[in-house]
Amino acid sequence: MTGKSRRIELRAAPHVKRGVNVETIMLHVVLALLPIAGFSVIQYGLSALALIMATTVSCLLSERLFSRLSGQGNTLADWSATITGLLLALTLPPSFPLWMAAVAGFAAIALGKVLFGGLGYNVFNPALVGRAFVQAAFPVAITTWAPAFFPGRFTGFIPTTFTMPLMTPPGLAEWLHQHVVDGFTGATPLARWKFENHVASAGDLLSGVATASAGETSALLILACGLYLAARKFMDWRIPVAVIGSAALVALAFHLVDPGRYPAPVFVLLSGGLMLGAVFMATDMATSPVTATGVWIYGAVIGVVTVMIRYFGGLTEGVMYAILIGNALVPLIDQYTQPRVFGARGRKA
After folding, report:
1. Burial, 236: exposed, middle or buried (Cβ in 10 Å; 0-12, 13-18, 19+)?
2. What pTM value is reported for the model?
3. Angstrom distances, CA of residue 157 to CA of 32, 129, 154, 185, 313
4. Which of 133, 136, 253, 263 is nearest to 189 (CA)?
5. Are 214 and 48 in contact (CB under 8 A)?
6. CA 181, chain centre distance (Å)
7. By CB neighbour count within 10 A (0-12 exposed, 13-18 middle, 19+ buried), where does 14 fall?
8. Average pLDDT, stretch 84-111?
9. Residues 215, 273: Cα–Cα separation, whole Å
10. How far is Cα 93 from Cα 95, in angstroms, rounded to an integer?
11. Is the Cα dihedral 181, 183, 189, 190 positive or negative?
């Protein structure tokens, strides 16, 4: 000792920190979502671009409004509202009216985030909260679809894009038949399987020509963007693996029992929003478990519930509700999967 007093600081774990903050992680998630958003614009043209802009701007303005009202200052720099806007747009039909998209963005921030105290305190994924709100409020509009890669998508908008509140939307089906494509059914691959027993080919599902929400038709691109986040350690890879793996196992079991009634696992995995939900929504750090065992249980619950809703529910898609149910179970999962404290007989309460 040199006689000089020294200060010893005692701090709680973790004691080893990465040189990465929340803003950096969120920015990389935004970058990972941009190729998916760009592909949706290639598929659906100007209407998809307008939809993405409407939800994102609505989320940003809502975030700024509530941050000013609460005196928190400017919280837009953490990129969380941008992520919510992008994800929300990718879960909506490209023909969704813009004013409804703006309502969805406001609901996502207000009900999914601000109501619980802001970033990190939300129990449910905000984008899915916004999507669930408009599904209940506008059930017809959210089940109205346009085909991918239709001619003229870069020179004009889908007629329903600019439908105003309290106004009857133009006849999308008639417009499609007259100006776009003949024989368009207006149904997603999941809907056609559920109600017509028609199973889309894996090639159609992988190529993005199948009808679906704006960002749900490019499974390979979604997986590639997810691998980028996992490689940078900005995403827990165990969650999408658990979601996809459990969904595949359940689908395989049903297919082996009755292959005429239940499709092969490849159709279950590539159709609908399973890939987008597994990679970008179930992995939300604020709404997923923190324990090693918990993430596997959480992912498995989402995968199993998704398949059960698709097979036995009244809805054609179950990913959104499966993730929201998984979010609700996170506190219990964390509680019962806490590692045993060293030297203790039982698990930590």
Report:
1. buried
2. 0.87
3. 26, 27, 8, 20, 34
4. 263
5. yes
6. 29
7. exposed
8. 94
9. 8
10. 5
11. positive
Q: Is the peptide bond before 14 cis (omega within 30 degrees of 0)?
A: yes
- Is the CB of residue 37 less than 8 Å from the CB of residue 148? no
Residue tagged 């998984």 (tokens): 326
- Give CA–CA dist 42/44, Å, rounded: 6
Amino acid in the structure at residue 200: A
**Which residue do the tokens 């190729």 mark?**
35
How far apart, in whole angstroms, are the C-alpha atoms of residue 80 and residue 22? 9
The partner residues of 347 in beta bridges, in order of sequence, read 340
What tokens does 191 get? 């809907």
For the chain, the three-class secondary structure string (H helix, E strand, C coil) is: CCCCCCCCCCCCCCCCCCCCCHHHHHHHHHHHHHHHHHHHHHHHCHHHHHHHHHHHHHHHHHHHHHHHHHCCCCCHHHCHHHHHHHHHHHCCCCCCCHHHHHHHHHHHHHHHCHHHCCCCCCCCCHHHHHHHHHHHHCCCHHHCCCCCCCCCCCCCCCHHHHCCCCCCCCCHHHHHHHHHCCCCCCCCHHHHHHHHCCCCCHHHHHHCCCCCCCCCCCHHHHHHHHHHHHHCCCCCCHHHHHHHHHHHHHHHHHHHHCCCCCCCHHHHHHCCCHHHHHHHHCCCHHHCCCCHHHHHHHHHHHHHHHHHHHHHCCCCCCHHHHHHHHHHHHHHHHHHCCCECCCCCCECC
Q: Cα–Cα distance between 101 and 53 in angstroms, integer?
A: 9
Q: Of 191, 144, 196, whose CA–CA distance to 172 is shortest?
A: 144
**Can you tell me the distance from the alpha carbon of 329 to that of 124, in angstroms, rounded to the nearest whole number?**
10
Looking at the DSSP bridge assignments, the partners of residue 15 are none
Could you tell me which residues come within 8 angstroms of residue 294 by beta carbon, excluding any fewer than 6 positions away? 330, 333, 334, 337
Residue with tokens 């970058």: 31
**Rg, C-alpha atoms of the chain:** 22
* pLDDT (0 to 100) of residue 347: 53
For 283-340, the pLDDT digits (tens) are: 998 899 999 999 999 999 999 999 999 999 888 888 999 999 999 999 999 999 987 7
